[in-house]
Design a protein that fits this description.
Blueprint: E1 4-11, E2 15-22, E3 28-33, H1 36-52, E4 57-63, H2 70-77, E5 81-85, H3 94-98, H4 102-119, H5 131-163, H6 178-186, H7 196-227, H8 230-239, H9 247-257, H10 266-272, E6 277-279, E7 289-292, H11 298-314, H12 316-328, H13 333-361, H14 389-397
Parallel strand pairs: 1-4, 4-5
Antiparallel strand pairs: 1-2, 2-3, 6-7
């Protein structure tokens, strides 16, 4: 029988509250500070308890949150098995939400972990991305964050002009072009129809927008460099062949999804993206579906939404699929778009998996011969085995 020291932890900025026990024994509370010295003392204490329990394995669990996966990495380095749990999948009730403490939260995590280890219950753990994937996510998320801030500044500029009842000239057909920005900068001068306060605010917003546009270009270069790295190059090229899928959408999908092989079918993809419908079925209610769950990464859903609109406008098959749903019920335009997002997310997963399979089955490339000269070797010519006259006659008869 396995021998475990089971630990459930509720972590905050300053402290870590533990509930731990050996096998079926009653749990006891222990607290440590959430810093380097506190973690060192906690690890030393847990190993000491494992030694007293006859060399028991230490299994640790805490909920995912703003602290990331740093504690997981530290515990793994010190031979402690660590699980990071999804808070949205932990059992909850109105009574628990109204009576919440660190000690009780740690006890809930402890009970979930002990049920998994000793009774085989399902543990709501999350996938742990490797450190390289976490750093790649930071680059792409920074690009999305800057783009979102730029959109907000543009909205502020439009609302400022609307409040001042200043309309752009009819000669400016498109917003945010070089001519449109020149016109906006002209409104900050002394001959502007805007008041003093509005001119000052508009000038500030234009400076912010210029900086954000420059920062967007810098981060776009970083995302492009990331897409050309070896681990993303082939998959990024395959995903961008889809109509409406650009560089940013591709890298958002690849970095947020992580290891594509951990999914086995389209239903898991839809559930992870939060594009699966909610269900409220019991008794005779066997087909009662609601709105989508919206679980998982909101960044992927935003990217899929932007790409889906482009595909509806430019992809004949996707436009026909969208129109088919809207024709049946004109009020379901949002539902039709969500269906297109789901189809696109599944298609991108298939494209990425197909690229991975092709890379695994491809024969290894031969190293270039010679010292300085490097050239592509011609593909080997396929040799056909000569058939006997009898075999050739039978083949023609078939």
């Amino acid at each position: 029988m396995s021998n475990y020291i089971i630990v459930g932890c509720d972590m905050s900025d300053r402290s870590m509250v533990l509930q731990l026990a050996h096998q079926e024994n009653s749990p006891r509370k222990k607290a440590f500070s959430n810093d380097d010295s506190g973690r060192f003392r906690m690890i030393h204490y847990l190993h000491d308890q494992a030694g007293k329990a006859g060399g028991a394995d230490i299994v640790f669990a805490y909920e995912a949150g703003p602290h990331g996966f740093g504690l997981h990495d530290v515990l793994t380095e010190h031979a402690i098995t660590c699980h990071v749990l999804a808070p949205s999948k932990m059992p909850s009730s109105p009574k628990k939400r109204g009576n919440k403490t660190d000690e009780k939260d740690a006890l809930d995590i402890f009970e979930a972990l002990r049920g998994h280890l000793l009774a085989g219950n399902r543990l709501p753990s999350v996938w742990i991305p490797d450190p390289r994937t976490r750093q790649d996510r930071e680059i792409v998320r920074a690009r999305l964050d800057v783009g979102d801030k730029a959109r907000r500044v543009r909205t502020q500029i439009r609302m400022l002009l609307k409040r001042a009842e200043v309309r752009k000239p009819k000669t400016l057909a498109t917003n945010w072009t070089a001519k449109h920005l020149a016109w906006l900068r002209g409104l900050t001068g002394s001959a502007s129809p805007l008041g003093d306060g509005s001119r000052l605010m508009l000038a500030s917003l234009l400076r912010q927008l210029a900086w954000l546009d420059e920062e967007t270009a810098t981060l776009d270069a970083g995302v492009a460099a990331l897409a050309h790295e070896e681990r993303y190059r082939s998959k990024a090229a395959a995903l961008q062949e889809e109509i409406g899928v650009g560089l940013v959408t591709t890298m958002v999908f690849l970095t947020e999804m992580g290891d594509l092989s951990r999914f086995s079918n389209r239903r898991q993809i839809a559930a992870y993206l939060g594009l699966a419908p909610r269900s409220d079925e019991t008794g005779r209610r066997s087909d009662c579906k609601g709105h989508i769950t919206r679980q998982g990464s909101a960044r992927i859903r935003w990217a899929l939404c932007q790409a889906a609109w482009v595909r509806v406008r430019n992809h004949p098959g996707e436009k026909a699929f969208y129109d088919q749903i809207v024709t049946r019920n004109p009020k379901k335009k949002k539902i039709a778009l969500v269906a297109c997002m789901r189809r696109l997310g599944i298609q991108l997963w298939h494209d990425g998996m197909e690229t991975e399979r092709s890379a695994r089955t491809a024969p290894p490339s031969r190293p270039p011969r010679g010292g300085k000269r490097q050239f592509a070797l011609p593909a080997p010519r396929r040799r056909h085995r000569r058939r006997s006259p009898e075999v050739e006659e039978r083949r023609r008869a078939v």
